[in-house]
Amino acid sequence: MKFLALLAAASIQQLASRQAKSLSSNFTWKSTGPLIGPKDDGRNLAGIKDPTIVEINGTYHVFSSTSQLAGYNMVYFSFTDFEKAGSAEFHYLDQSPIGTGYRAAPEVFFFEPHGLWYLIYQNGNAAYSTNKNISDPLGWTAPTNFYPNGRPAIISENIGAGYWVDMWVICDKTTCHLFSSDDNGQLYRSETPIGDFPKGMSEPVIALQGKKEDLFEAVCIHRITDDQYLLVIEAIGATGERYFRSFTSNRIAEGWKPLAATEENPFAGAANVEFEGTPWTKSISHGEIIRTHLDQTLTIDPCKLRFLYQGLDPALNSGEYNALPWRLALITQTNSAC
Ligand SMILES: *[C@@H]1O[C@H](CO)[C@@H](O)[C@H](O)[C@H]1NC(C)=O
Ligand SMILES: *[C@@H]1O[C@H](CO)[C@@H](O)[C@H](O)[C@H]1NC(C)=O
Ligand SMILES: *[C@@H]1O[C@H](CO)[C@@H](O)[C@H](O)[C@H]1NC(C)=O
Protein backbone atom coordinates (compact mmCIF):
# COMPACT_ATOMS: atom_id res chain seq x y z
CA MET A 1 0.00 0.00 0.00
CA LYS A 2 2.66 2.40 1.09
CA PHE A 3 4.69 1.53 -1.99
CA LEU A 4 1.68 2.12 -4.23
CA ALA A 5 0.93 5.43 -2.53
CA LEU A 6 4.52 6.49 -3.05
CA LEU A 7 4.31 5.47 -6.66
CA ALA A 8 1.10 7.46 -7.11
CA ALA A 9 2.65 10.47 -5.40
CA ALA A 10 5.71 10.17 -7.62
CA SER A 11 3.69 10.00 -10.80
CA ILE A 12 1.48 12.94 -9.74
CA GLN A 13 4.63 14.89 -9.10
CA GLN A 14 6.02 13.83 -12.44
CA LEU A 15 2.81 14.85 -14.16
CA ALA A 16 2.83 18.20 -12.36
CA SER A 17 6.41 18.90 -13.31
CA ARG A 18 5.73 17.82 -16.86
CA GLN A 19 2.77 20.21 -17.03
CA ALA A 20 4.80 22.96 -15.43
CA LYS A 21 7.47 22.54 -18.09
CA SER A 22 5.27 22.40 -21.15
CA LEU A 23 5.65 24.59 -24.18
CA SER A 24 2.97 27.25 -24.65
CA SER A 25 0.60 26.74 -27.59
CA ASN A 26 0.57 30.47 -28.31
CA PHE A 27 3.03 33.18 -27.41
CA THR A 28 3.18 36.80 -26.30
CA TRP A 29 6.40 38.76 -25.88
CA LYS A 30 7.79 42.09 -24.87
CA SER A 31 10.71 43.60 -26.73
CA THR A 32 13.61 45.83 -25.90
CA GLY A 33 14.61 48.58 -28.28
CA PRO A 34 17.58 47.98 -30.59
CA LEU A 35 20.56 46.87 -28.49
CA ILE A 36 23.41 45.96 -30.82
CA GLY A 37 24.47 47.51 -34.11
CA PRO A 38 27.61 48.29 -36.09
CA LYS A 39 30.43 50.25 -34.47
CA ASP A 40 32.05 53.42 -35.73
CA ASP A 41 35.31 51.56 -36.31
CA GLY A 42 36.08 52.08 -39.98
CA ARG A 43 34.45 48.83 -41.13
CA ASN A 44 31.41 50.71 -42.43
CA LEU A 45 29.04 47.87 -41.67
CA ALA A 46 25.38 48.38 -42.44
CA GLY A 47 23.90 45.66 -40.25
CA ILE A 48 24.49 43.16 -37.43
CA LYS A 49 22.32 40.13 -38.15
CA ASP A 50 21.46 36.47 -37.72
CA PRO A 51 22.61 36.00 -34.10
CA THR A 52 23.29 32.67 -32.38
CA ILE A 53 23.57 32.89 -28.61
CA VAL A 54 24.44 30.79 -25.57
CA GLU A 55 24.61 31.83 -21.93
CA ILE A 56 27.42 30.29 -19.88
CA ASN A 57 27.58 31.08 -16.19
CA GLY A 58 25.98 34.48 -16.67
CA THR A 59 27.97 35.49 -19.76
CA TYR A 60 26.21 35.70 -23.11
CA HIS A 61 28.28 34.63 -26.13
CA VAL A 62 26.95 35.88 -29.47
CA PHE A 63 28.06 35.17 -33.04
CA SER A 64 26.39 37.27 -35.74
CA SER A 65 26.59 38.07 -39.40
CA THR A 66 28.05 41.42 -40.38
CA SER A 67 26.50 42.91 -43.50
CA GLN A 68 27.25 45.65 -45.96
CA LEU A 69 26.72 46.12 -49.67
CA ALA A 70 30.07 44.38 -50.31
CA GLY A 71 28.86 41.21 -48.56
CA TYR A 72 28.86 39.20 -45.36
CA ASN A 73 31.21 37.94 -42.69
CA MET A 74 30.82 37.27 -38.94
CA VAL A 75 31.56 38.83 -35.56
CA TYR A 76 31.84 37.48 -32.00
CA PHE A 77 31.14 39.40 -28.80
CA SER A 78 30.20 38.62 -25.22
CA PHE A 79 28.56 40.48 -22.37
CA THR A 80 26.91 39.83 -19.02
CA ASP A 81 24.13 42.40 -19.15
CA PHE A 82 21.81 43.11 -22.11
CA GLU A 83 21.67 46.78 -21.14
CA LYS A 84 25.40 46.99 -21.84
CA ALA A 85 25.44 44.64 -24.85
CA GLY A 86 25.83 47.61 -27.21
CA SER A 87 29.27 48.37 -25.81
CA ALA A 88 30.63 44.81 -26.00
CA GLU A 89 33.91 44.64 -27.92
CA PHE A 90 33.58 43.23 -31.45
CA HIS A 91 35.94 40.46 -32.58
CA TYR A 92 35.66 40.06 -36.34
CA LEU A 93 36.04 36.43 -37.37
CA ASP A 94 37.65 37.33 -40.70
CA GLN A 95 40.77 37.83 -38.54
CA SER A 96 40.67 34.14 -37.54
CA PRO A 97 41.39 31.15 -39.80
CA ILE A 98 37.71 31.37 -40.82
CA GLY A 99 39.02 34.11 -43.11
CA THR A 100 37.54 36.76 -45.34
CA GLY A 101 34.79 36.36 -47.93
CA TYR A 102 31.22 35.14 -47.76
CA ARG A 103 30.49 33.58 -44.36
CA ALA A 104 27.18 34.22 -42.63
CA ALA A 105 24.30 33.07 -40.43
CA PRO A 106 26.19 31.22 -37.68
CA GLU A 107 24.96 28.62 -35.21
CA VAL A 108 27.17 27.73 -32.21
CA PHE A 109 27.01 24.64 -29.97
CA PHE A 110 29.32 22.40 -27.94
CA PHE A 111 29.71 18.96 -29.53
CA GLU A 112 30.16 16.91 -26.40
CA PRO A 113 31.66 13.76 -28.05
CA HIS A 114 34.59 15.85 -29.39
CA GLY A 115 34.81 18.31 -26.50
CA LEU A 116 34.79 21.10 -29.10
CA TRP A 117 32.66 24.11 -29.98
CA TYR A 118 31.27 24.01 -33.50
CA LEU A 119 30.32 27.07 -35.50
CA ILE A 120 28.00 26.19 -38.41
CA TYR A 121 27.53 28.79 -41.17
CA GLN A 122 26.91 29.38 -44.85
CA ASN A 123 29.76 30.12 -47.25
CA GLY A 124 28.11 29.14 -50.55
CA ASN A 125 28.21 25.59 -49.13
CA ALA A 126 27.32 24.58 -45.56
CA ALA A 127 30.47 24.94 -43.47
CA TYR A 128 31.82 24.42 -39.97
CA SER A 129 34.77 25.53 -37.88
CA THR A 130 35.78 24.25 -34.44
CA ASN A 131 37.34 25.80 -31.35
CA LYS A 132 38.31 24.50 -27.89
CA ASN A 133 37.51 27.83 -26.32
CA ILE A 134 34.35 29.77 -27.20
CA SER A 135 35.89 32.94 -25.74
CA ASP A 136 38.86 32.87 -28.11
CA PRO A 137 37.75 34.46 -31.40
CA LEU A 138 41.07 33.64 -33.08
CA GLY A 139 40.83 29.95 -32.15
CA TRP A 140 38.42 28.87 -34.91
CA THR A 141 39.65 26.49 -37.60
CA ALA A 142 39.41 27.23 -41.32
CA PRO A 143 36.03 26.40 -42.95
CA THR A 144 35.31 22.80 -43.93
CA ASN A 145 32.31 22.11 -46.15
CA PHE A 146 29.66 19.58 -45.11
CA TYR A 147 28.95 18.80 -48.78
CA PRO A 148 32.37 18.15 -50.36
CA ASN A 149 30.83 17.74 -53.82
CA GLY A 150 29.16 21.15 -53.72
CA ARG A 151 25.50 22.08 -53.68
CA PRO A 152 23.37 18.93 -53.64
CA ALA A 153 21.30 18.27 -56.77
CA ILE A 154 17.91 18.38 -54.99
CA ILE A 155 18.62 21.96 -53.92
CA SER A 156 19.59 23.05 -57.43
CA GLU A 157 16.39 21.43 -58.73
CA ASN A 158 14.14 23.39 -56.35
CA ILE A 159 15.92 26.66 -55.63
CA GLY A 160 14.47 28.75 -58.48
CA ALA A 161 15.53 32.36 -57.90
CA GLY A 162 16.24 31.68 -54.21
CA TYR A 163 19.44 31.37 -52.17
CA TRP A 164 20.81 28.39 -50.25
CA VAL A 165 21.02 29.68 -46.69
CA ASP A 166 20.74 29.23 -42.93
CA MET A 167 22.27 25.89 -42.04
CA TRP A 168 21.25 24.40 -38.70
CA VAL A 169 22.66 21.30 -36.97
CA ILE A 170 20.91 19.43 -34.16
CA CYS A 171 21.69 15.93 -32.88
CA ASP A 172 19.64 13.36 -31.01
CA LYS A 173 21.20 10.34 -29.32
CA THR A 174 22.07 8.54 -32.57
CA THR A 175 21.99 11.05 -35.43
CA CYS A 176 23.09 14.55 -36.34
CA HIS A 177 20.78 16.43 -38.70
CA LEU A 178 21.75 19.34 -40.96
CA PHE A 179 18.92 21.62 -42.13
CA SER A 180 19.05 24.39 -44.72
CA SER A 181 16.62 26.57 -46.71
CA ASP A 182 16.41 27.70 -50.33
CA ASP A 183 14.40 30.93 -49.88
CA ASN A 184 11.95 29.28 -52.24
CA GLY A 185 9.66 27.20 -50.02
CA GLN A 186 11.83 24.18 -49.20
CA LEU A 187 13.45 23.22 -45.91
CA TYR A 188 16.04 20.47 -46.45
CA ARG A 189 17.49 17.89 -44.05
CA SER A 190 20.60 15.71 -44.26
CA GLU A 191 21.81 13.32 -41.59
CA THR A 192 24.86 11.42 -40.42
CA PRO A 193 25.39 9.00 -37.51
CA ILE A 194 26.51 10.95 -34.45
CA GLY A 195 29.73 8.91 -34.37
CA ASP A 196 30.61 10.13 -37.89
CA PHE A 197 29.76 13.81 -37.34
CA PRO A 198 30.74 16.14 -38.98
CA LYS A 199 31.49 13.81 -41.91
CA GLY A 200 29.09 11.75 -43.93
CA MET A 201 26.10 14.07 -44.36
CA SER A 202 23.56 12.30 -46.59
CA GLU A 203 21.95 13.72 -49.71
CA PRO A 204 19.29 16.13 -48.40
CA VAL A 205 15.59 15.36 -48.41
CA ILE A 206 12.78 17.92 -48.22
CA ALA A 207 11.68 18.22 -44.59
CA LEU A 208 9.02 20.91 -45.11
CA GLN A 209 7.65 22.40 -48.31
CA GLY A 210 5.20 25.20 -48.98
CA LYS A 211 4.80 28.70 -50.31
CA LYS A 212 8.10 30.57 -50.37
CA GLU A 213 6.67 33.26 -48.04
CA ASP A 214 5.51 30.67 -45.49
CA LEU A 215 8.78 28.72 -45.21
CA PHE A 216 11.36 31.31 -46.09
CA GLU A 217 14.54 30.88 -44.01
CA ALA A 218 16.26 31.11 -40.60
CA VAL A 219 15.15 27.75 -39.23
CA CYS A 220 15.97 26.88 -35.60
CA ILE A 221 15.16 23.52 -34.06
CA HIS A 222 15.38 22.84 -30.35
CA ARG A 223 14.83 19.85 -28.11
CA ILE A 224 12.30 20.30 -25.30
CA THR A 225 12.30 16.60 -24.33
CA ASP A 226 13.17 13.36 -26.14
CA ASP A 227 9.54 13.38 -27.30
CA GLN A 228 9.12 17.03 -28.21
CA TYR A 229 11.08 19.23 -30.57
CA LEU A 230 10.29 22.85 -31.49
CA LEU A 231 10.98 24.20 -34.98
CA VAL A 232 10.71 27.91 -35.73
CA ILE A 233 11.12 29.34 -39.21
CA GLU A 234 10.99 32.85 -40.61
CA ALA A 235 8.12 33.81 -42.90
CA ILE A 236 7.23 36.86 -44.97
CA GLY A 237 3.96 38.55 -44.01
CA ALA A 238 1.26 40.08 -46.20
CA THR A 239 3.03 43.45 -46.41
CA GLY A 240 6.58 42.09 -46.48
CA GLU A 241 7.34 42.18 -42.76
CA ARG A 242 9.10 39.15 -41.28
CA TYR A 243 7.69 36.94 -38.52
CA PHE A 244 8.31 33.45 -37.13
CA ARG A 245 6.08 30.41 -37.44
CA SER A 246 6.45 27.39 -35.12
CA PHE A 247 5.98 23.64 -35.44
CA THR A 248 6.44 20.69 -33.11
CA SER A 249 7.26 17.04 -33.63
CA ASN A 250 8.16 14.06 -31.48
CA ARG A 251 11.27 13.47 -33.62
CA ILE A 252 13.70 15.59 -35.60
CA ALA A 253 13.48 13.73 -38.89
CA GLU A 254 9.82 14.37 -39.72
CA GLY A 255 6.28 14.81 -38.42
CA TRP A 256 6.25 18.61 -38.02
CA LYS A 257 2.80 19.94 -37.05
CA PRO A 258 1.94 23.66 -36.90
CA LEU A 259 1.87 25.16 -33.39
CA ALA A 260 1.58 28.97 -33.57
CA ALA A 261 2.10 29.27 -37.29
CA THR A 262 0.14 32.17 -38.81
CA GLU A 263 0.85 35.88 -39.15
CA GLU A 264 -2.13 36.58 -36.84
CA ASN A 265 -0.99 33.98 -34.29
CA PRO A 266 2.74 33.67 -34.89
CA PHE A 267 5.56 32.28 -32.77
CA ALA A 268 6.87 35.85 -32.81
CA GLY A 269 5.86 38.78 -34.98
CA ALA A 270 4.26 42.22 -34.94
CA ALA A 271 0.97 40.60 -33.84
CA ASN A 272 2.27 39.28 -30.51
CA VAL A 273 5.28 41.40 -29.55
CA GLU A 274 4.70 44.39 -27.33
CA PHE A 275 7.05 47.38 -27.40
CA GLU A 276 7.46 50.33 -25.13
CA GLY A 277 6.18 53.27 -27.15
CA THR A 278 6.24 53.11 -30.93
CA PRO A 279 7.58 49.75 -32.15
CA TRP A 280 11.14 50.32 -33.40
CA THR A 281 10.67 47.46 -35.91
CA LYS A 282 7.75 45.80 -37.67
CA SER A 283 9.79 42.70 -38.49
CA ILE A 284 10.83 40.01 -36.04
CA SER A 285 13.51 38.47 -38.24
CA HIS A 286 16.40 35.94 -38.05
CA GLY A 287 17.32 35.11 -34.47
CA GLU A 288 17.60 32.43 -31.88
CA ILE A 289 16.27 31.29 -28.51
CA ILE A 290 18.90 31.77 -25.79
CA ARG A 291 20.35 28.41 -24.71
CA THR A 292 21.85 27.69 -21.32
CA HIS A 293 22.20 23.99 -22.13
CA LEU A 294 25.22 24.00 -24.40
CA ASP A 295 25.50 20.64 -26.14
CA GLN A 296 24.53 19.33 -29.59
CA THR A 297 21.00 18.40 -28.43
CA LEU A 298 20.16 22.15 -28.36
CA THR A 299 17.89 21.54 -25.40
CA ILE A 300 15.87 24.48 -24.11
CA ASP A 301 13.68 25.00 -21.10
CA PRO A 302 10.24 25.87 -22.57
CA CYS A 303 9.59 28.42 -19.82
CA LYS A 304 9.97 32.19 -20.23
CA LEU A 305 11.67 31.93 -23.58
CA ARG A 306 14.10 34.65 -24.58
CA PHE A 307 14.79 35.21 -28.27
CA LEU A 308 17.53 37.44 -29.69
CA TYR A 309 16.36 38.71 -33.10
CA GLN A 310 17.13 41.18 -35.84
CA GLY A 311 14.82 44.09 -36.53
CA LEU A 312 14.77 47.08 -38.80
CA ASP A 313 13.57 50.67 -38.45
CA PRO A 314 10.64 50.83 -40.94
CA ALA A 315 11.74 54.32 -42.02
CA LEU A 316 15.07 52.87 -43.20
CA ASN A 317 13.63 49.83 -44.98
CA SER A 318 14.56 50.73 -48.55
CA GLY A 319 17.44 50.18 -50.92
CA GLU A 320 19.72 47.18 -51.33
CA TYR A 321 18.86 44.31 -48.97
CA ASN A 322 22.51 43.74 -47.96
CA ALA A 323 22.89 47.40 -47.00
CA LEU A 324 19.86 47.59 -44.69
CA PRO A 325 20.61 48.67 -41.10
CA TRP A 326 19.49 45.57 -39.18
CA ARG A 327 19.99 45.73 -35.41
CA LEU A 328 19.68 43.10 -32.68
CA ALA A 329 17.10 43.22 -29.90
CA LEU A 330 15.67 40.84 -27.30
CA ILE A 331 12.13 39.58 -26.83
CA THR A 332 11.10 37.85 -23.60
CA GLN A 333 8.01 35.65 -23.40
CA THR A 334 5.26 37.17 -21.24
CA ASN A 335 2.72 34.29 -21.26
CA SER A 336 4.89 31.41 -20.14
CA ALA A 337 2.84 28.50 -18.81
CA CYS A 338 5.49 27.90 -16.15
C1 LIG B 1 -3.29 30.20 -25.73
O1 LIG B 1 -2.92 28.98 -25.10
C2 LIG B 1 -3.57 28.76 -23.87
C3 LIG B 1 -3.02 27.49 -23.27
O2 LIG B 1 -1.65 27.37 -23.48
C4 LIG B 1 -5.06 28.69 -24.08
O3 LIG B 1 -5.70 28.59 -22.84
C5 LIG B 1 -5.54 29.94 -24.80
O4 LIG B 1 -6.90 29.79 -25.14
C6 LIG B 1 -4.74 30.16 -26.06
N1 LIG B 1 -5.15 31.43 -26.66
C7 LIG B 1 -5.39 31.55 -27.95
C8 LIG B 1 -5.74 32.93 -28.41
O5 LIG B 1 -5.30 30.62 -28.73
C1 LIG C 1 30.56 27.55 -14.66
O1 LIG C 1 31.18 27.86 -13.42
C2 LIG C 1 31.44 26.74 -12.60
C3 LIG C 1 31.92 27.25 -11.25
O2 LIG C 1 32.88 28.25 -11.41
C4 LIG C 1 32.44 25.85 -13.31
O3 LIG C 1 32.71 24.71 -12.53
C5 LIG C 1 31.86 25.42 -14.64
O4 LIG C 1 32.81 24.67 -15.38
C6 LIG C 1 31.45 26.62 -15.45
N1 LIG C 1 30.73 26.15 -16.62
C7 LIG C 1 31.14 26.36 -17.84
C8 LIG C 1 30.32 25.76 -18.93
O5 LIG C 1 32.14 27.02 -18.10
C1 LIG D 1 39.89 31.35 -23.74
O1 LIG D 1 40.19 32.48 -24.54
C2 LIG D 1 40.20 33.70 -23.80
C3 LIG D 1 40.36 34.84 -24.80
O2 LIG D 1 41.50 34.64 -25.60
C4 LIG D 1 41.29 33.64 -22.76
O3 LIG D 1 41.28 34.83 -22.00
C5 LIG D 1 41.06 32.43 -21.86
O4 LIG D 1 42.15 32.31 -20.96
C6 LIG D 1 40.95 31.17 -22.68
N1 LIG D 1 40.59 30.07 -21.81
C7 LIG D 1 41.27 28.93 -21.81
C8 LIG D 1 40.75 27.88 -20.88
O5 LIG D 1 42.25 28.76 -22.52
UniProtKB/TrEMBL annotation:
Catalysed transformations (reactions) = Hydrolysis of terminal non-reducing alpha-L-arabinofuranoside residues in alpha-L-arabinosides
What do the Gene Ontology cellular component annotations say?
Answer: extracellular region
GO process terms (BP) = L-arabinose metabolic process; xylan catabolic process
UniProt keyword list: Glycosidase, Hydrolase, Secreted, Signal
Q: What is its EC number?
A: 3.2.1.55
Against Pfam families, the record matches this protein to: Glyco_hydro_62
Q: Where in the cell is it found?
A: Secreted
Name the Gene Ontology molecular function terms of this record: alpha-L-arabinofuranosidase activity
Note the superkingdom of the native organism: Eukaryota
Is the rRNA-binding keyword given for this protein? no
Q: Which InterPro entries match?
A: GH62_arabinosidase, Glyco_hydro_beta-prop_sf
Q: What is its main location?
A: secreted
Could you tell me which PANTHER family the record lists for this protein? ALPHA-L-ARABINOFURANOSIDASE (PTHR40631:SF2), ALPHA-L-ARABINOFURANOSIDASE AXHA-2-RELATED (PTHR40631)
Q: What does this protein do?
A: Alpha-L-arabinofuranosidase involved in the hydrolysis of xylan, a major structural heterogeneous polysaccharide found in plant biomass representing the second most abundant polysaccharide in the biosphere, after cellulose.
Q: Which family does it belong to?
A: Belongs to the glycosyl hydrolase 62 family.
Q: What is this protein called?
A: Alpha-L-arabinofuranosidase
Q: Which organism was this protein described from? A: Cercophora newfieldiana
Source taxonomy: Eukaryota, Fungi, Dikarya, Ascomycota, Pezizomycotina
